[in-house]
Design a protein that fits this description.
- The complex is a heterodimer of chains A (242) and B (405).
- Chain A is α/β, with parallel strands linked by helices and 242 residues long.
- Chain A has one domain: 3-Layer(aba) Sandwich (Rossmann fold), CATH 3.40.50.
- Helices cover 38% and strands 26% of the residues of chain A.
- The longest helix of chain A has 16 residues.
- Chain A is globular.
- By secondary structure, chain B is of the alpha+beta class.
- Chain B has two domains: 195 residues, no CATH class; 161 residues, no CATH class.
- Chain B contains 15 helices and eleven strands.
- Chain B has a six-stranded mixed β-barrel.
- In chain B, β1 and β2 form a beta hairpin.
- The radius of gyration of chain B is 32 Å and the shape is elongated.
- The chains are: A alpha/beta (242), B alpha+beta (405).
- The interface between A and B is medium-sized, with 28 and 25 residues.
Chain lengths: 242, 405
């Protein structure tokens, strides 16, 4: 059996703030296999953003281990983590986070400028990534703030794809889109999964979760199985009714 | 990130903030413009003074001595003999004034009687004809060399061909053999400059035998300070001047010492201006820092995004540093252009205020070294005042900055 792309074991993340300690992740263990479309669900404040940041190497666990493609990231320096983000990870955000005044192509090329990719190759790869998300060539030289929401998110997905990363991490990618456009974006993810990409979706929307191969729930910093989640929901639901 | 990528990022950042960038950089522009204008003006003043005072003649020594009696031709001849190791040539001058009239016009001639070698020693520029010759000088002929302003005054047109013409000076008919360029202060009132042989001047105009100022041309490669002290000693001995009176009786001025004095004077003036300008640059630099800090705050999400996409700290530092350096450098270029233009405007005003004639106006001079220095200073300001904001941007936490509202 090949090693999982993501291998998280017993990860805790404790924040220190003026208000005291915040225990955001409490012993999270999670494996994601290559080519899997995983959905992480949870209400706000459940720790799903912290988990996402940890998986994206933007944040390091307080304790526990995280191996990305077998590499223990806790031993890496800031610059090495940056390199990892530049080459092995792709991010898609709820609010797209494109550079508004830059053209579509420049937005997609951006991650490549932080790698050694030769100039000649950059455009080629950016165009391939844009083709993969189905954005028509006519838009390539438009400024990104001239696009519709769905187009912007597809540009953002192309940007996440351009480095051919091990994992694409998407945080509420359909949160700012209407359901028809959201559906198009999810179809894009689904197609990429079919092409062998590993994708982690974070959402609180069950309709989005329906597209996933597997769903895990997070509550109060802990991952729950489907059964535990159902039990949890029933308990809190009955409490809500009485 | 490659330099070409950084430049592209910087260009688009400016594109986004054109008006604000321009306003912020104004402090630097003003500071640099002040420095450049002053440097150019002082350079121009220096060049024009050097020119007018014949200061290009580094080997020139002006000698004057009076102790109980004036210098005479005997003194000059003796000096020529005894100091021949120091001087290539020694030229006596005597001065006088007389009425000068052409067929139609009248003026007052400020006459210098001298040797033909005066032309070489003082670097006189001839516009027409020639300086008077050794033969004319020896026999004391009635020949005169006049300056261009005299031509204008006496013949109506400064370009009139006047060699061979006759003018009356002090009631005698003189033949004009040449025309020189006008020197400093030329063209004031009715005065015109006239050169004639020493002997002619002494015998026909002033009737005296006294020598006024003496001009010496030191030998090539001579130590000018040594030549000057030798000359002082020689004069003191010849005139029997006691130690205590020497200071007041003997004037030996080398062009080098005058140039040094001038340099010191202009240098201290420039230092003062530079001090004032550096305050402006300091204020400008703080303005740049302020704008860059605002810039960082406004672009926190962009910085977070860049970090998420793989930018290292140094990529972010470089991006913001390059932005501030480009800003100050652009300010510097603008300042150089404005300062140089301003120097011309000021030179025009100054020329008008002092009533200088057209030929003697100040032309601002700015060297490539000053321009490079200013460019260097601008880059320095950009780095110094851009470093703190850039570091601050680079140290931002990617998670927090991504979710910054």
């Amino acid at each position: 059996m090949s090693i999982p792309v993501i291998d998280v074991r017993n990860v805790h993340r404790i924040y220190e703030s003026a208000a005291g300690y915040m225990h955001a992740l409490r012993g999270v263990t999670l494996q994601v296999a290559r080519g899997e479309l995983l959905c992480i669900m949870g209400p706000s404040g459940s720790g799903k953003s912290t988990l996402m940041n940890t998986l994206g190497c933007l944040d390091t666990p307080t304790s526990g281990t995280y191996r990305l493609e077998g590499l223990d990231v806790s031993t890496l320096t800031d610059d090495e983590l940056a390199e990892l983000r530049a080459t092995r990870l792709g991010f898609v955000f709820q609010s797209f986070n494109l550079l508004p005044r830059a053209t579509v192509l420049r937005n997609v090329v951006l991650p490549l400028t932080y790698t050694d990719t030769p100039k000649a190759l950059r455009r080629e790869r950016a165009e391939a990534a844009l083709a993969a998300v189905g954005l028509p060539t006519a838009y390539f030289d438009h400024r990104s703030n001239e696009l519709s929401g769905g187009q912007m998110q597809r540009v953002a997905i192309a940007r996440a794809l351009v480095n051919n990363p091990a994992v694409i991490l998407a945080d509420e990618p359909t949160g700012n889109l209407d359901s028809a456009t959201g559906r198009m974006v999810l179809e894009t993810f689904s197609r990429l999964r079919d092409e062998g990409k590993t994708i982690v979706l974070i959402t609180h929307d069950p309709d989005v979760a329906a597209w996933a191969d597997r769903t895990v729930h997070i509550r109060d910093g802990k991952l729950l199985t489907d059964e535990e989640e159902r039990a949890y929901a029933q308990r809190s639901g009955s409490r809500g009714r009485t | 990130m490659k330099l070409s990528d950084l430049v592209l990022e910087t260009a688009s950042a400016f594109d986004a903030n054109r008006a604000r960038s321009l306003l912020t950089v104004l402090g630097v522009v003003i500071g640099i413009a002040a420095v450049i204008a002053m440097t150019a003006l002082i350079g121009g003043v220096k060049a024009s003074l050097m020119n007018e005072m014949g200061m290009s003649q580094a080997r020139l020594v002006e000698i004057y001595c009076f102790y109980n009696r004036e210098m005479t031709l005997d003194d000059i001849n003796a000096m020529q003999n005894e100091l021949k190791d120091s001087y290539e040539v020694i030229v006596p001058t005597t001065s006088g004034s007389a009425d000068i009239t052409s067929s139609t016009e009248k003026a007052t001639a400020m006459i210098t009687g001298t040797y033909p070698a005066y032309e070489t020693v003082m670097g006189v520029k001839m516009l027409q004809g020639r300086f008077f010759s050794q033969d004319e000088s020896n026999s004391g002929q009635l020949v005169a060399v006049i300056d261009q302003s005299a031509v204008k005054k006496l013949f109506g047109n400064e370009n009139a061909q006047v060699t061979g013409e006759t003018v009356r000076i002090g009631g005698l008919d003189f033949t004009i053999v040449g025309v020189t360029e006008s020197g400093a202060g030329a063209g004031y009132g009715d005065n015109v400059t006239v050169y004639m042989p020493l002997r002619t001047c002494q015998q026909r105009i002033s009737g005296a035998t006294a020598i006024g100022e003496v001009l010496g041309l030191a030998v090539e490669g001579a130590d000018m300070n040594k030549v000057a002290s030798e000359t002082r000693e020689w004069l003191a001995k010849r005139f029997n001047i006691p130690e205590s009176d020497q200071e007041d009786s003997i004037y030996v001025i080398t062009m080098q010492s005058m140039r040094e004095q001038l340099d010191t004077l202009l240098g201290s003036f420039q230092l003062l201006m530079t001090a004032v300008a550096s305050i402006s640059l300091l204020v400008g630099g703080i303005g740049i820092m302020n704008m860059m800090l605002t810039n960082v705050t406004e672009r926190i999400r962009e910085i977070g995004l860049r970090k998420a996409l793989g930018a290292r700290r140094r990529d972010i530092t470089r991006q913001f540093l390059l932005e501030s350096v480009c800003l100050t450098l652009a300010g510097g270029v603008l300042g150089i252009v404005l300062g140089y233009a301003g120097a011309f405007a000021l030179a025009g005003l100054a020329g008008g205020a002092f009533g200088m004639s057209e030929g003697t106006s100040i032309t601002p001079v700015i060297g490539i070294d000053s321009v490079l220095l200013v460019a260097g200073i601008c880059v320095g300001i950009g780095i110094v005042f851009g470093y703190y904001p850039a570091r601050r941007a680079a140290r931002l936490d990617p998670v927090e900055s991504l979710h910054y509202q």
